[in-house]
Design brief:
41% helix, alpha/beta, seven-stranded mixed β-sheet, 16 helices, globular, 465 residues, single chain, 19 strands, binds flavin-adenine dinucleotide
Length: 465
């Protein structure tokens, strides 16, 4: 706990009447995950007190369990938020840059498809727990922030604004922001009678995921290319691997839960597991000494998209992050979008102060079409990663895009617009990106080699979009 306010805290507390007014405010945050911890910092910087209630124990003191993505791809939208709270350099110092997708064919051949033709445009593999703990530590530096662990919210009263916990505790602040993730209890209260005509949809993929492990090599070195997101695309299923700072990789196997030729349901013992791996991921087997143990110990996770609206109950509460818009992880944007949520909410507080009803209403109106856009692009990217990276036309298209990005500084692929352009709303990236994709796929299906394509002609057509 910080005894003396930081210079920035002094500034935010005493610089203006408006800010002084804000110090009287207290926000209840439900969930000390990635979005909740970041949000507390944003609020604290404005002199707004935040009490954060988290159902789990204190992560800073307990080991995190396997099974919930150990590492994550952090990109520009998330970095922009971390920069605003001064944690970007700290987090990037322990991140592993990934410059592209390294595809692994069934015969073990690899190929790097770069994410961008421009220097400095790459994504970063960071530790989920490391990032969460860094955010909580930073939040705790502010006197106005208090964490309450092992406090599970069981109900939220949309009329009174009271939050009720399993422990029997009932709390109420000036408002409540729910960052309690995809299974949000606050959202459930809104859905089950709290908000009339509350729109809600949840759609599950038939695929689930399981995490597996590639340890560092003998000398602590990476056993595969360090600076890439590895991908074994096998049409109906796939495996990916992201590097960790300690030389290991975390693999995630995405596979149908049940039925068909290949599914989790069919991998019931060591024999069936090894046969499946030998047929599909043979080059990975020697790198995975604990494959069997990991496979039969780690849980299978579900993958789904959650949409709902409205996100607020007047000025009493707001859903933010996964609680409002959980997406499938195939664009690596769920956390990045949640961090962008915090950044945009902060801008609206800057504009409207703590008129929560106005802030929340405007936030929802601004943000919904963008989170819907990333939800759709994330689902589509599942098929791109699973099928298209093994498709020669798509591989040529990626090559062409890389060339265009290299030759024309103002060309951005859809992936680049989503991942590296924090100044562009997701909805714009989707609209423009889809039109570009259609054009480039047509061009690449007509040629055998990208060198036959005149880049200036292509760029002229792109500019007409
Ligand atoms: P969460 O991180 O889920 O945090 C919610 C918090 O609320 C948790 O601490 C939880 O314990 C707490 N909580 C829940 N219920 C209650 C309750 N009733 N009372 C009190 N506390 C409660 N995103 C990326 O940007 N890049 C990636 O590469 C990426 N990879 C992913 C891979 C996988 C396999 C998955 C599943 C997701 C991935 N994501 C990725 C998405 C990312 O994990 C989420 O978007 C992000 O965690 C959302 O943050 P959040 O704070 O809203 O929710």
């Amino acid at each position: 706990m910080l005894l003396f306010p930081t210079p920035l805290e002094m500034f935010t507390r005493f610089s203006s009447e408006n800010k002084l007014e804000m110090t009287k405010q207290k926000v209840i945050i439900i969930g000390a995950g990635l979005a909740g911890s970041l949000l507390a910092i944003y609020l604290a910087k404005r002199g707004i007190a935040a009490d954060i209630y988290e159902s789990r124990g204190d992560m800073q003191k307990t080991e995190t369990a396997a099974g919930r993505s150990i590492n994550l791809a952090l990109s520009n939208r998330g970095i922009a938020a971390l920069k605003e709270i001064g944690l970007d350099e700290y987090m990037l110092a322990e991140a592993v840059p990934m410059h592209g997708r390294m595809t692994h064919a069934v015969d073990g051949q690899t190929r790097l498809l770069r994410y961008s033709g421009r220097q400095g445009e790459y994504i970063n593999s960071v530790s989920r727990a490391g990032l969460n703990i860094a955010l909580m530590n930073e939040a705790e530096r502010y006197a106005g922030v208090k964490f309450y662990f092992n406090e599970k919210l069981i109900d939220f009263d949309c009329n009174t604004g009271e939050a009720k916990f399993e422990s029997g505790e009932i709390v109420k602040g000036d408002t409540l922001i729910a960052t309690d993730g995809a299974g949000s209890a606050v959202r459930n209260a809104m859905l089950h009678g709290g908000v009339p005509r509350f729109n809600f949809s949840q759609s599950w993929l038939e695929h689930g995921y399981k995490e597996l492990h590639i340890p560092p090599g003998a000398g602590g070195d990476f056993q595969m290319e360090k600076n890439a997101l590895h991908i074994w695309a096998r049409r109906a299923f796939m495996m990916i691997a992201l590097p960790n700072f300690d030389g290991s990789f975390t693999c995630t196997l995405f596979l149908a839960h049940t039925g068909g030729e290949n599914s989790f349901e069919q991998l019931t013992d060591e024999k069936s597991l090894l046969e499946f791996f030998k047929a599909n991921f043979a080059d990975a087997i020697p790198l995975m000494p604990t494959l069997t143990e990991d496979f039969f110990t780690n849980p299978i996770g579900n993958l789904g998209t959650i949409k709902c609206f409205p996100w607020n109950v007047g000025g009493k509460s707001l859903l933010l992050g996964d609680s409002a818009h959980a997406v499938v992880p195939f664009y690596g944007q769920g956390m990045n979008a949640s961090f962008e949520d915090c950044r945009i909410l902060n801008e609206l507080i800057e504009r409207h102060g703590t008129d929560w009803e106005k802030v929340f209403g405007e936030y929802g109106a601004l943000r919904k079409e963008n989170t819907d856009a990333i939800a759709q692009m994330a689902e589509e990217n599942f098929y791109e990663m699973r099928d298209a990276v093994a498709d020669p036309v798509f591989v040529r298209k990626r090559e062409l895009e890389t060339k265009l990005e290299h030759a024309f500084p103002d060309y951005f692929s859809k992936y680049s617009m989503v991942t590296f352009r924090e100044d562009l709303p997701y909805s714009v990236a989707k609209r423009k990106g889809n039109a570009q994709d259609k054009l480039l796929m047509e061009i690449c299906s007509d040629v055998k080699d990208v060198s036959q394509i005149n880049l200036n002609d292509v760029m002229k057509k792109v500019k007409r979009i």
